[in-house]
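User: Hi! I'm working on a homework problem where we have to compare a predicted structure to a textbook description. Could you give me the structure for the chain below?
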Amino acid sequence: MVSLQDKANAYSRSLSGGMKRRLLIAKAMVHQPPILVLDEPTAGVDVELRNNLWENVKELNNEGVTIILTTHYLIEAQEMCDRIAIIDKGNLVALDTTERLLERIKTKKINFKVKNIDLERKLFIEDAKFKIINKNTVSVTYEKNSLDFSEIVDYLNQNNIEIKDISTEDGDLEDVFVQLTKH
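Assistant: Happy to help. Predicted structure tokens:
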């Protein structure tokens, strides 16, 4: 499960840092615990090991093992966890499902690839902030609950701004953390 079969006869002190971390995970799982606590399991490991570890953790969870994960990599927590607790300076500031925590994000960002916009042009819609990044990119940040995406597209069309492409950036768990902790 932790891909150490070729090191079966090696001393643990001869293993690399990533291999030692894998060995610790194997030791924690060897007695098939109903609850597995993983403290920063991917700190200092390579991409291949990280992906392998998460596949194994998902498999264990599907088999009924409860996984408690501590991590500073919030994107990993967002992808892996059903429920998340956010702790700031020893204080619990949130405990909820991942979905509900992400629903707390009030803003959305859209990047429009456009055809030659004047860098000095002023764009304004109430509850939206426009930023002309360069002659071909306009960024818009807006409150999801007070403005509809189609209103922004209509505004750009009405102002003869030709849209070539659109990409959106939804908020993530880091945005929730910043919103809750104010830093």
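For your comparison, note the following. The helical segments are 17-29, 47-62, 74-80, 98-103, 149-158, 173-181. The radius of gyration is 23 Å. Good luck with the assignment!
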